[in-house]
Design a protein that fits this description.
Strand 3 and strand 4 form a beta hairpin. The chain is an alpha+beta fold. Helix content is about 30%, strand content about 20%. The chain has a four-stranded mixed β-sheet with strand order 1-2-4-3, covered by helices on one side. The protein is elongated and about 50 Å long. It is built from two helices and four strands, in the order E-H-E-H-E-E. The protein has two domains: about 1-30; about 35-110, Ribosomal Protein S8, Chain: A, domain 1, CATH 3.30.1370. Bound molecules: zinc ion (ZN).
Amino acid sequence: MARDECDNCGMRLTPEDTHCPKCDEHRYAKNAKKTFSVDIAHNLQTVSQAEQQLDIAIREARDQQFGKLRVVVGRGIIRREIRRSLDTAVWQHRIRDYQVEENNEGAYILRLESGK
Ligand SMILES: [Zn+2]
């Protein structure tokens, strides 16, 4: 999912570049203010599949330095069961915290420990 160009100056980046060789902008600097979004509940997932998708999404969002991760959990069993995974992720410092999305109880907003 790596992009090829610097957000700041347009310089072509190789897959190994974490910073732009021309202007030194971090590859994912702009992502810190953005939200990565994933739906883990509307493709007939089991709870354990949803938990796996959550773990993968947290890893991807962290790797790309996103500030927040929005997780769509629907209104069924996944919504209830995923809280355990979210609590674990907080305890393991993979996310800072999480809360129900404003005006939409079918999604959680996770704040990530980004910028490291
Ligand atoms: Zn640049």
